[in-house]
Amino acid sequence: MKRLLLAAGLLTLFTSSARSETEFQITCPGRAVMTISRAQYGLTTLMWPQRHFQVASGQTRHTMKNGAKIAITRFRNGDRLIINQSSGEVWFAYHHTEKLLPCSRSAKREVEAVTLERFDDRGHINS
Fold first, then answer.
1. So which residues are the signal peptide here (predicted)?
2. Which residue of 34, 67, 80, 112 sits 20 to 30 Å from the alpha carbon of 43, by its own alpha carbon?
3. C-alpha angle with apex 22: 29 to 25, nearest 5 degrees?
4. Stretch among 22-26, 30-34, 118-122 having the lowest mean pLDDT
5. E strand or H helix at 12, and its extent?
6. Which residue from 27, 4, 39, 53 is spatially nearest to 106, judged by alpha carbons?
7. How far apart are CA 14 and CA 92, in angstroms?
8. φ and ψ at 9, to 5 degrees?
9. pLDDT at 6
10. Where are the domains of the chain?
11. CA atoms within 13 A on the CB side of 120
12. Euclidean distance between CA atoms 106 and 16, whole angstroms
């Protein structure tokens, strides 16, 4: 019984920490400051003024010939975020071009995930 309670307690700690998100901002030529949020299950969001919002699922990871580790996030509109995980350098490629633009990046910070209430609208004909 003690083992079961201990396991349940540890599981509670693990699942609560998995709900956090990280967020950072990038500044790239040709667009206002963009906010990148990384959530659980590989979801990444990209936001910039005025009301622009894109999503991506997962990352593609590569190791370059020089040993540098690169992570590429491809958003639904075709924009790509490229991060050299070895050096911290950040580039961005807009959907209509293959040109990599160097960007500056803010520090990563933890933010609380928002838990939305479930809403059952099956009774509404127009939904």
1. 1-20
2. 67
3. 15
4. 118-122
5. helix 2-17
6. 27
7. 34
8. -65, -45
9. 46
10. 21-110
11. 2
12. 26
Least confident range of 41-50, 81-90, 92-101, 117-126: 117-126
The pLDDT, as a whole number, for residue 120 is 74
Rounded distance, CA 81 to CA 44, Å?
Answer: 11
**CA–CA gap between residue 63 and residue 84 (Å, rounded):** 10
pLDDT tens column, 5-25? 445 454 444 444 445 588 999
C-alpha distances out from residue 29 to 6, 87, 95, Å: 52, 20, 14
Tell me the pLDDT tens digit for each residue of 57-92.
Answer: 999 999 999 999 999 999 999 999 999 998 999 999
User: Rounded to whole angstroms, how far apart are CA atoms 71 and 96?
Assistant: 20
Residues near 55 by Cβ (< 8 Å), separated by ≥ 6? 43, 44, 45, 46, 75, 76
